[in-house]
Amino acid sequence: MIKKHSLDMTHGSVPKLLINFVFPLIITNLLQQLYTATDSAIIGRFAGKTALAAVGATGYATGLILNLLIGLSLGANIINANHLGNKEAAALRRSMHCSLLVALYGGILISIIGMLIAPFMMQWTNCPENIMDDAVLYMRIIFCGA
Fold first, then answer.
1. pLDDT tier at 61 (50, 70, 90 boundaries)?
2. pTM for the full model?
3. How far are the Cα atoms of 9, 10, 128, 132 from residue 85, in angstroms, in the given order?
4. What is the secondary structure of the chain as a DSSP string?
5. b/e map of 42-67 (b: 16 or more CB within 10 Å)?
6. Are 99 and 76 spatial neighbours (Cβ–Cβ below 8 Å)?
């Protein structure tokens, strides 16, 4: 069943709908920036300059992975939204379950593959040798969280 508190983007004031839609995205981006700033501050203060440089060297690789996963989840959301808009409750339930299973198994697969290819990823981004070990370690920590 479709809940009454869902946001219907096809009717109503466009500015109000856009604000309701965009606000969570803005908050998400702010929280991501806060995470990055906090991560850098803690690592820089307690682990030193080399560790902070290693975290910075992983930025492109982690950004690539994060944007890939965001793109995949947006694709799943489009399918789910289509079923929701067509009021196809059974198809929505199936596609949501499928999305969750793909996320679960995909996360496990990305974790395993990522931990194996972390050194190669850092080489591909031309990570300096003096911070390579720390950068690879940080990438592996990130992949453990996938």
1. confident
2. 0.68
3. 10, 10, 50, 49
4. ---TTS--TTSS-HHHHHHHHHHHHHHHHHHHHHHHHHHHHHHHHHT-HHHHHHHHHTHHHHHHHHHHHHHHHHHHHHHHHHHHHTT-HHHHHHHHHHHHHHHHHHHHHHHHHHHHHHHHHHHHTT--HHHHHHHHHHHHHHHHT-
5. ebeeeeeeebbbbbbbbeebbeebee
6. yes
Task: State how far Cα 34 lies from the chain centre.
Answer: 15
d(C-alpha 2, C-alpha 4), whole Å: 6
Give the Cα separation of 68 and 114 in Å (integer).
13
Residue 15 amino acid letter:
P
8 A C-beta contact, residue 36 and residue 114: no
* Cα distances (angstroms) measured from residue 115 to each of 18, 33, 107, 137, 143: 39, 24, 12, 9, 6
Amino acid identity of residue 106, one-letter, is G
pLDDT above 90: percentage of residues in the chain:
28
Q: How far apart are CA 81 and CA 7, in angstroms?
A: 11
